[in-house]
Amino acid sequence: MTAAVTERQAIGRLDFAAREAVLFPGKADNLYRVTTGLVRLFTVDDDGSGVTLRYIKPGGYFGEEVLADRPRRYFAEAVTDTQLEVVPAAQLNQDEQNALSRQLAEALDRMGRSLHRLAGKPLRARVAAEILELSDSDLAQRGSDGATVIRVTHDDLATAVGSVRETVTKVIGELVRLGGIRAGYGKVTIRDARVLRDVAGE
């Protein structure tokens, strides 16, 4: 499909291409569950700069503000080719409610850590944490040497951590020199996750 989800669409499965808009701020009528792919939730400040709030991986939910009859205040986009399931909140069975509760608690924890990084940690720590977060997403795959390769650009990382590409490029160079990663065109390869965890302080 070629347009963001509207609240008029029937319950079912929705397919999005990489970089396609999924949701905009506004009234929320449904929950969404990621079947395949990766979804990024982000906000935009008055200067037009975007900051990532969290990623939704397969099996994860978003759109939970419908449970409290609250408006949606973020944007959602498909980072990779993605399939979503539109979930009517009133029809969740007990197992689905339990799974949703666990995932919301985990999401709150991740968002709290993300906000802590943005407010109180240096850019190098935020970039290292972002790379670690993406290392088990649909952007990651195993290279021929067994290392984790993440298909992400410096622009993508800058958007995620609330910075600019030029500054993030310098940080990537520092992480390369520390032995944590290798950097290539449109990709980052993890050499030593321990280095990244130490830098991220996690």
Question: What class do helices, strands and sheet pairing give?
Answer: alpha+beta
In percent, how much strand structure appears in the residues?
25-35%
Q: Could you give the distance between the termini?
A: 38 Å
Strand order of the largest sheet: 1-8-3-6
**Largest β-sheet summary:** 4 strands, antiparallel
- Ranges where pLDDT stays below 50 over 5 or more residues in a row are 6-10
> How many domains make up the coordinates?
2
CATH 4th-level superfamily of the largest domain = Jelly Rolls
SSE order, one letter for each helix or strand: EEEEEEEEHHEEHHEEH
Helix segment tally: 5
The CATH class of the largest domain is Mainly Beta
CATH architectural label of the largest domain: Sandwich
CATH topology of the largest domain: Jelly Rolls
**Inertia-based shape:** globular
Rg on CA atoms, Å: 17 Å
The average pLDDT value, as a whole number, equals 85
Strands, count: 12
State the helicity in percent bands. Answer: 25-40%
Brief write-up:
The protein has 202 residues and is of the alpha+beta class. Helices cover 34% and strands 26% of the residues.
